[in-house]
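Appendix B. Raw example, untouched.
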Amino acid sequence: MARPRPEPVQVVKQRRDAALNALVHGVPYIQFLGIEFDRRGDELTSVMPFADRLIGNPILPALHGGATAAFLEVTAIIGLSWSMLWDQIESGALDPDDLAQGKLPRLPKTIDFTVDYLRSGLPRDAYARAQVARSGRRYASVHVEAWQDNRARPFAQASGHFLMPRRDG
């Protein structure tokens, strides 16, 4: 029995990138904050490039706590959505062209979100990764860490619970 020939790697990468791009650009607040996502396989790293408007305390200067919390929450929601949609993206069941036209799947809704501010966010680019601890039919639990210069020294972390969207339509 012959195995089907795998898709060319460029086709797979284009499908993944198109799906992520549509998912991220479907949320206007992500563009407002300037958050971008770096994809390596199924792993996402969010990047919030520094901008003066993100400063909360100009005397220190330090990133605004609300911008930091929003960065962490956006990372958690997009990371959770990405893990939820990964199988559909890989199988081709989720068409990136449909996503680009605005036919986006529903995103998880925040139930609660707790942020730990570990140190001041410096006026630099910030990075974050989400780790899905549990994802079921009804709710999911996600942990997020944000760092700037050193991955081992996070400046903020968060834990959140999310209501999962219905998958039957």
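End of appendix B.
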